[in-house]
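Researcher: Let's do a round of design. I'm pasting the structure tokens now; please hold your answer until I've finished.
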């Protein structure tokens, strides 16, 4: 680890895109706050759209109008999630937002989807030290992410994209296409 890294807090390392200890007490407090806010959101009657939207706005860092987040939503910060107009997250969506996750306008996320900015070292020693690295995820406008998808850290998804159900997106996705598979690849261009 470079010398300057040793002088940084774990939060500073996370924000700089460097390996950090995910069990750091300051980071744990963020997760605790997010967990409490997610629990409040998930406890609200699904038919009470106004109360659900208000709770979701308290949880997220920024949200446009017409915000719809269904029960079973989980995140580990919340304030790093920014969504545009008419955002929908279906049931049981998890967004691990150690780094920023930004959605454009008119995006839909299908049920059971995991969007994870955070990964862990391939070497066992790094995992034993509880190290992680978080990389931002950016999603353009008019994107539909199907059910049970996985989006990994560092990925940028263009606008007018459909991510087919079950896809695992590990690389950037251009505009105007459908991606599918594990790992996801372009299977169709959209006009």
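Researcher: That's everything. Go ahead.
Model: Designed sequence:
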């Amino acid at each position: 680890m470079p010398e300057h890294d040793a002088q940084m807090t774990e939060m500073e390392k996370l924000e700089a895109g460097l390996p950090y200890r995910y069990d750091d007490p300051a980071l744990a407090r963020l997760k605790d706050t997010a967990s409490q806010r997610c629990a409040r959101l998930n406890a609200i009657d699904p038919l009470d759209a106004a109360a659900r939207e208000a709770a979701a706005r308290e949880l997220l860092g920024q949200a446009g109008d017409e915000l719809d987040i269904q029960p079973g939503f989980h995140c580990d910060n919340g304030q790093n999630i920014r969504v545009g107009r008419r955002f929908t997250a279906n049931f049981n969506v998890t967004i691990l937002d150690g780094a920023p996750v930004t959605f454009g306008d008119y995006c839909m996320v299908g049920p059971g989807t995991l969007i994870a900015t955070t990964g862990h070292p391939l070497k066992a020693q790094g995992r034993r030290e509880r190290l992680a690295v978080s990389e931002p995820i950016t999603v353009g406008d008019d994107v539909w992410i199907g059910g049970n998808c996985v989006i990994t850290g560092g990925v940028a998804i263009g606008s007018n994209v459909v991510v087919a159900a079950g896809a695992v997106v590990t690389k950037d996705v251009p505009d105007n296409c459908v991606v599918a598979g594990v790992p996801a690849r372009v299977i169709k261009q959209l006009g």
